[in-house]
Design a protein that fits this description.
- The protein is α+β, with helices and mostly antiparallel strands.
- It has helices at residues 40-47, 70-85, 116-125, 137-148, 171-181, 198-207, 221-233, 339-343, 347-370, 374-391, 394-400, 422-430; strands at residues 2-3, 11-18, 21-22, 28-38, 53-60, 91-97, 101-105, 112-113, 155-162, 186-192, 212-215, 237-245, 251-259, 263-264, 270-271, 276-284, 287-296, 305-315, 324-335, 404-408, 413-416.
- The chain is 32% helix and 31% strand.
- The strands form four sheets. Strands 1, 3, 12, 15, 16, 18 and 19 form a seven-stranded mixed β-sheet that branches.
- A hairpin with a 4-residue loop joins strand 20 (404-408) and strand 21.
Length: 441
């Protein structure tokens, strides 16, 4: 483990957990790469006067937001709460989203700078928010992207709220918009009520390296928006990349974030020179995340060893300058004829492999349930209950218990409930990717 961060910036560290021992002929090497950032809160306070963040809030104002009226009212109150949470010097704007996107504040293609006066003006402008029209989320994101690109802020972030499906835009248009916006800003997405599409909202958050969640009751929107904005205000370093270098003959099988949520980054790779590729990790404050790296090495004989991969955390620099190295860790492979050593599964690897399987089992089980496949849904959701119980994922276990009757958690024996509230099913699906940390002995 190495740490290269400057004292004035958040300090990053990388730790690698693995069983490096392989049997003769063994080729697949698994490692959990733990990345930790500390000191960001102090650095954030020092950077406040520099206006190091820019945030655009996108509020669904389609016609369905008036049914019931507390959705639109809750959206106004939540946006006001988020505005109150902005620290002085933060650039910000508010967008009303329907089948078109309109600037609510400050207007004229600008971003306001947060202070007591602009926060008051912005909250006053929320009185004009009213429902009517359709839903075309890509237009909201494109306007947000245009506004954020006018800012020189280090942290560029969006908060998006919707209550319905993206019915007034071709899915291909939204996909293209997300591809264009990826890497330019991060975005948290929220669905209010139960008439929106989980895969759309989670897809937006995934593409833009943000969080996704359901707020079934509009009365809880203000609390959620406040927490989201507090999280954004705690970010200090943006566009951090995890670079993996591998020797000749080594192939990367996959790279996944596995904590605090499951996020497959394999296809997000950008080439970074011979045998090196960068995987985006987004913005960081005081936090820790874990990544599961699997590489395939050439077969070798007992007694041989090699560097299987080098994981380096990088911060982009000015054009023409090399990126700053924040931290580094090594993944090794050692071939042995010691059966106990080569068959032992590292606890971290085992835990997060189970957490990834848990997320997949929930998603597949709910999909089978929607398709009327009772046997498939029961098997998958039973396996999910078993995995949640074994890993101590109590939050997910509670959500599962609202969808199935648990007969034996340890064995994964369940029965599908005859009736399930839409909010309970959508909450389970939306939060299926949330994981728990490996238990520390």
């Amino acid at each position: 483990m190495a740490n290269f961060a400057k004292p004035s910036a958040p300090r990053f560290s990388v730790e690698v957990y693995q069983n490096e021992f392989l049997p003769e002929g063994g080729r697949d090497v698994h490692a959990i790469v733990t990345v930790t950032s500390t000191g960001g809160a102090t650095a954030t306070r020092a950077a406040a006067d520099r206006g190091s963040a820019a945030v655009v809030i996108m509020v669904d104002c389609s016609g369905s937001m008036e049914y019931p009226p507390d959705k639109m009212r809750g959206a106004r109150e939540a946006t006001a709460a988020a505005i109150d949470t902005l620290r002085d010097g933060t650039a910000f704007a508010v967008i009303a989203g329907t089948h078109v996107a309109k600037e609510v504040y400050p207007g004229q293609g600008r971003l306001a700078v947060a202070d007591a006066a602009t926060r008051a003006q912005a909250k006053e402008s929320l009185r004009s928010l009213s429902s009517g029209g359709g839903t075309a989320i890509g237009t909201w994101l494109r306007l947000a992207d245009g506004l954020l690109r006018r800012s020189t802020a280090t942290i560029r972030h969006g908060i998006l709220l919707t209550d319905g499906r993206n019915e007034h835009e071709d899915p291909a248009v939204l996909r293209a918009t997300l591809e264009a916006c990826a890497g330019r800003f991060t975005c948290d997405a929220r669905g209010v009520g139960t008439d929106w599409e989980v895969k759309e909202v989670t897809g937006i958050a995934s593409a833009l390296l943000g969080s996704a969640d359901i707020v079934a009751d509009p009365a809880h929107l203000s609390e959620d928006f406040t927490l989201m904005m507090e999280n954004v205000m705690g970010k200090e370093v943006a566009d951090v990349a995890l670079r993996l270098w591998t020797p000749v003959g080594v192939e990367i099988q996959y790279v996944k974030q596995v904590a605090p949520t499951v996020q497959d980054l394999t296809d997000r790779r950008s080439e970074a020179g011979p045998r090196a590729g960068d995987y985006p990790t987004g913005s960081w404050g005081d936090e820790s995340r874990e990544y599961h790296v699997c590489v395939r090495v050439p077969a070798a004989s007992v007694g041989q060893e090699m560097l299987a991969a080098r994981a380096t955390l990088l911060l982009p620099a000015a054009p023409g300058e090399p990126p700053a190295v924040l931290a580094q860790g090594l993944v090794r492979a050692v071939w042995t004829d010691d059966l106990a050593a080569s068959t032992a599964i590292n606890p971290q690897v085992a835990h997060y492999t189970g957490q990834a399987e848990l997320a997949q089992a929930i998603q597949q089980g709910l999909e089978a349930r929607k398709m009327g496949d009772v046997g498939g849904a029961t098997a998958k959701l039973g396996r999910a209950v078993q995995l949640a119980s074994a890993s101590g994922n109590a939050d997910t276990a509670k959500l599962l218990a609202k969808v199935v009757d648990v007969v034996d958690a340890a064995a994964g024996t369940v029965r599908l409930k005859a009736k399930v509230a839409d909010a309970d099913e959508m909450t389970l699906e939306t939060r299926s990717i949330q994981t728990v940390r490996v238990k520390k002995s």
